[in-house]
Amino acid sequence: MTLTYDSVSVGDEVYCLAWVGKRFTVVAKDDDQRLVALEGEAASDPYGAHVDLFDETMWMVTDQPWDQIWYWPDRAGEHYLDVYQRWAARQAPGRLIVGHLSDSGGIANVGGFILANPKRSMTFRVLSIDDSYAQTIIEPVALADDPGRRPDLDDLAAPEHEWVSVGPRTPVRISMMSYRWAVSYGDIILNWEDFAPPAE
Predict the structure, then answer these.
(1) pLDDT tens digits, 126-183
(2) Which of 18, 22, 176, 180 suits 112 as a labelling partner, its CA being 20 to 30 A distant?
(3) Do residues 29 and 10 lie in contact, with contact meaning Cβ atoms separated by under 8 Å?
(4) Are 141 and 147 in contact, with CB atoms under 8 Å apart?
(5) Taking Cα atoms as reference points, which of 111, 101, 117, 116 lies closest to residue 179?
(6) pLDDT of the residue at 103
(7) Residue in 73, 18, 10, 2 with CA at minimum distance from that of residue 36
């Protein structure tokens, strides 16, 4: 389970998503800033490891010795399979989808958000979905009559458009980016709605 500022005490042994597989000890708490200071075991790492966390980032701390990233919930509290299955449930073979480029493997905007930007997007065709292996195969596509044009949402639904493959067919990748589970094709985020800024 994830922990809160109030649920940890100095001397507690915890684990942190910022450094998967390393055991930390809570070495200090600052009630004014509501800051928790963690120190990694020096015996296993001669340089040690130090992480400071605030109320807003305590979701990164657990009392479970999760040594694989797949166990961890992301900053929204979701596990990878929940995120993937929700995304895959909206897809179907032959469907066209749009993905948006993250910023060199990070997320394009401060705070881990993505703003939909046609200039940083790419269109894909869903080829197959295999629920038993949680695997979806996609391929990048472009408009056959004008491959250099950026399609808009109306183009995706227009039956008169023909689409051609412009890249390799590949399974989507599931990885954590900016502490959020991402369904992606390289650095193109396909579940970009999960990275959208909160509505004002």
Answers:
(1) 999 998 788 999 999 999 988 778 787 777 877 778 999 999 999 999 999 889 999 9
(2) 22
(3) yes
(4) no
(5) 111
(6) 67
(7) 10
What secondary structure letter does DSSP report for 13? Answer: E
- The Cα–Cα gap between 132 and 4 comes to 36
45 pLDDT above the threshold of 70: no
Task: Judge residue 161's burial from the number of C-beta atoms within 10 Å of its C-beta, 0-12 exposed, 13-18 middle, 19 or more buried.
Answer: middle
* DSSP per-residue letters across 87-108: HHHT--TT-EEEEEE-BTTB-S
User: Taken in order 156, 160, 164, 170, is the CA torsion positive or negative?
Assistant: positive
Average pLDDT of span 16-42: 93
Any bridge partners for residue 96, and if so which? Answer: 125
Question: Phi first, then psi: what are they for 160, rounded to 5°?
Answer: -80, -15
Residue 95, C-beta contacts closer than 8 angstroms, at least 6 positions apart: 125, 126
What DSSP string describes 129-155? EEGGGTEEEEEEEEESS-TTSPP-HHH
